[in-house]
Amino acid sequence: MLTNLERCRLFRDRMVSQMTTREHLRRKILELKEKKEAIILVHNYQIPEVQEIADFIGDSLDLARKAMTTGSKLIVFCGVRFMAETAKILNPDAKVLIPRKDAGCPMADMITRDQLIELKRKYPDAVVCSYVNTNADVKAESDICCTSANAARVVSSLDSKRVIFTPDRNLASYVARFVDTEIIPFDGYCYVHRRFKAEDIKAARAAHPNALVLVHPECDPEVVDLADEVLSTSGMVEFAKKSEVKEFIIGTEEGLIERMARELPHKRFYSAGKARFCFNMKKTTLKDVYDSLENEQYEIALDDEVASGARRALQRMMSLGK
Ligand code: 13P
Ligand code: SF4
Prior knowledge:
- The structure is a single chain.
- This protein is of the alpha/beta class.
- The protein has 14 helices and twelve strands.
- It has helices at residues 4-36, 48-51, 60-69, 81-90, 113-122, 136-140, 151-156, 169-176, 198-207, 221-225, 233-242, 254-263, 286-295, 304-318, and strands spanning 38-43, 56-58, 74-78, 95-97, 127-131, 144-146, 162-166, 182-185, 212-215, 229-230, 247-251, 268-271.
- A four-stranded parallel sheet has the order 2-1-3-4, with helices on both faces. It has a four-stranded parallel sheet with strand order 6-5-7-8, sandwiched between helices. It has a four-stranded parallel sheet with strand order 10-9-11-12, sandwiched between helices.
- Helix 10 links the parallel strand 9 (212-215) and strand 10 (229-230).
- Helix 1 packs parallel to helix 13 and helix 3 runs parallel beside helix 4 (81-90).
């Protein structure tokens, strides 16, 4: 039986050893990255130690832009598969690696290419706008893509009375607030954002009366109704940086809240209700990033026809500019 003092020492030794391993891995990653002239792109939801080794952290749109314009021929993408696929599609000459091949997005997997083809048959006069949170074969069947940062602007740019919007029904309903176009939503959703409830927002407001509420458009409409601002993940960072306000209630995945607290230590950030996690976003560890760089795994490879169809839809979105 260990005494309390022995238990404390054991705990301290374990912490020191973990920190040494983390620092060691961090250094090895930076060395390897330099040697291979690679760039590490990291989504806002990744764990803090992965965010800390990023060359660039951002939301889906920021990261897609960065992937397209980087001169680097080796991109390590720490996020989920649809994001790494988007990077490869927009920069076909680069080798794009995803450190965890099992990091998918359940919402992206909710719609298949065949389901979209069926919807197109049902509404032959509609234009198809797909959220970037889709697999490449669904993008290839779409006319244009959008992200959480530009969805309403993308739909407004379309010269059509009807738009099929896939796969997020909540983003579709958010866009419908700003356009006259008839939106035909697909019935997909994000299990992480759906967990924020209107009661959570009301309780958080009561607990922090001076805070502004910022939520992601993947939240349910009742939650969106109660927000002060509805923004993409990087949109929330920018908003909090520029705002005079010092406290914010955040309705999105915990990784972003950790980033905001780190970058804006003089401000306070509270999760809207319980902290919510996207398990696929949390899979990538520093060791995975190291292995990915060392062994150049796991390379994103796409069928040429799928890639060129998806590129057309993505480039149409990119051509709208910022
Ligand atoms: P952002 O593009 O706003 O970062 O959103 C991506 C995402 O997957 C949200 O769940
Ligand atoms: Fe997909 Fe939701 Fe995770 Fe974003 S938070 S990657 S939409 S499951």
